[in-house]
Amino acid sequence: MAKVDVAFSLTGSSIPVDHGYCLFSAVSRVVPQVHKSREIGIHPISGRLIGSRTLALTPTSCLTLRLPQEQLGQVLPLAGKLLQLGDSRVRVGVPHTRALRPSKRLYSRVVIIKGFSEPQLFLDAVVRQLAALGIHGEASLVEQQGVADSNVGKLSGSHSPYLRRTVRICSKDIVGFAVLVGNLRENDSVLLQETGIGGRRRFGCGVFVPVKE
Known about the structure:
By secondary structure, the protein is an alpha+beta fold. The chain has two domains: 3-99, Alpha-Beta Plaits (2-Layer Sandwich); 106-210, Alpha-Beta Plaits (2-Layer Sandwich), CATH 3.30.70. It is 23% helix and 34% strand. The chain is built from six helices and 13 strands. It has helices at residues 20-30, 32-36, 72-75, 119-132, 145-150, 186-195; strands at 3-11, 14-16, 41-42, 48-51, 54-56, 62-68, 82-85, 88-99, 106-111, 138-141, 164-169, 172-182, 209-210. A five-stranded antiparallel sheet has the order 3-6-1-8-7, covered by helices on one side. Strands 9, 10, 11, 12 and 13 form a five-stranded antiparallel sheet that branches. A three-stranded antiparallel sheet has the order 2-5-4, with no helix packed on it.
């Protein structure tokens, strides 16, 4: 089932950095089908970090849903709605639709795989999930360069340089990592974007996008 991205412009001032769960809840209140669907993923909203775990919205900030193209009409009622995200409110604007395009390198801001919170074991689980989908690519975890530099010469372990992120869902913090998959063939690239890996895609996890070169 072919999927597309539908992106709605946003107006507002700022939103929480960790907004996956509250965004899913707000969208589901307007479009109940989103709550029931296992085929829909919601991209994290981009913005500019301004401290206190807050993102300032920018002219390119969008609410973007990845869904089967047959379900596109279900989410159009989001246009014009006011969404409550924590203590912030954003107004949803006009949507535009774009096809998924192949890219040799794909990135996900955070991937969550239940039962795996240590870097190497997590990466091994990523590789297994890609293999189960028949996807050939080179998976790696994204490093935080500042942390990596500060740990030169130190023992590995608690000083992991990898970009570990937590997602709060129902008052519980769940650990994941930023993931990069490279050297992808065109068909595999589109398949990975359509299916994702790990869980919690409705909360912005495991949603892959092309790397901007």
